Amino acid sequence: MSPRVRQPAAAGIFYPSDPGQLAGAVDRLLAEANEPPSGEPMPEGLIVPHAGYVYSGPVAATAYARLRPFAASVSRVAILGPAHFFPLLGAAVPGVDSWRTPLGDVPIDGALRDAAVKAGAVIDDGPHEPEHSLEVQVPFLQRLLADRFSMLPVAVGVTSPGQVADLLAEFLSAFPATPDGAPGVLTLISTDLSHYHDHETARRIDRRTADAIFARDPEAIGGEDACGLFALRGVLEHARRRELDVRLLDMRTSGDTSGNRRRVVGYGAFGLWRSTWS
Q: Apex CA 136: angle with CA 132 and CA 140, to 5°?
């Protein structure tokens, strides 16, 4: 039986469909991102935006650049984000064997999928087929990690912060940290922030959201504050339970990256670490 492959839905819309152009675009974004501070440890998780690369790509690259020194240590990635086009209660993971982008196929991690199902997720490709929020993260991973990783995309619908935190705990239980301290599973939370305000209003709302993220306070994230609301709330509960340190890496709006400040979308990049450093 031939492997089942999820075809890209966002290529040519959110990012280039030509492999060479896509590789070049991602590499440029990563090259323009700031280098991690000296001595910064590997993050356990990242919160990254998911709009078209021309809009949110520079902010996402700021987060992904944090992985550059640790690329050889990352072998499993869980990507959690919203299902924009599919009504969903709880979490859904794909049943296919791999996901395709113009840069090639990435295997779905069967053991992570089993852990997700154990934590209450369902196997359903429906929420994933049209969805961009998870797909747009994959080319960044492919350029950073080459073919050395497997992944599990998780579409997160209406659910409690505790249920998402339980899911993430199941991942870490199945794959604990390595002896050198690298997380057994890198967690990515895909979300944009405020939508369709003027630039200054968006900055004010997003700063309030950032404060809630720093405080690891899921209940302080309102329904209009982030489109990846449920995954974001869940990772904050996870961070609270594990006493993770949350730091802002970058925060802008589409007005900063595209120039139109009348009706913008907010983007934030944050890192989650297991310990503080000076």
A: 170
Q: Against a cut of 0.70, is the pTM above it?
A: yes
**278 is a domain residue:** no
Q: Give, in order, the Cα–Cα distances in Å from 258 to each of 21, 101, 139, 264.
A: 20, 25, 21, 9
In a domain, 263, yes or no: yes
pLDDT tens for the chain, 278 residues long, are: 668 999 999 999 999 999 999 999 999 999 999 888 888 999 999 999 999 999 999 999 999 999 999 999 999 999 999 999 999 999 999 999 999 999 999 999 999 999 999 999 999 999 999 999 999 999 999 999 999 999 999 999 999 999 999 999 999 999 999 887 789 999 999 999 999 999 999 999 999 999 999 999 999 999 999 999 999 999 999 999 999 999 999 999 999 998 889 999 999 999 999 876 65
214: enclosing H helix or E strand: helix 199-214
Residue 165 lies in a domain: yes
Three-state secondary structure call for residue 68: helix
What does DSSP assign to residue 98? E
Could you count the other beta carbons within 10 Å of the beta carbon of residue 231?
31
What are the structure tokens assigned to 139, written together? 């080319």
What does DSSP say about strands 245-253 and 264-273: parallel, antiparallel, or unpaired? antiparallel
Residue 238 burial (CB count, 10 A): 27
Domain extent at residue 110: 5-273
Encoding tokens for residue 152? 């599990």
Phi, psi of 101, rounded to the nearest 5 degrees: -125, 175
How open is the CA angle 69-71-74, to the nearest 5 degrees?
130
Instruction: Tell me how many domains the chain contains.
Output: 1
CATH number of the domain to which 231 belongs: 3.40.830.10
What whole-number distance in Å separates Cα of residue 102 and Cα of residue 20?
Answer: 9
Residues in contact with 215: Cβ distance below 8 Å, sequence separation at least 6, in sequence order: none
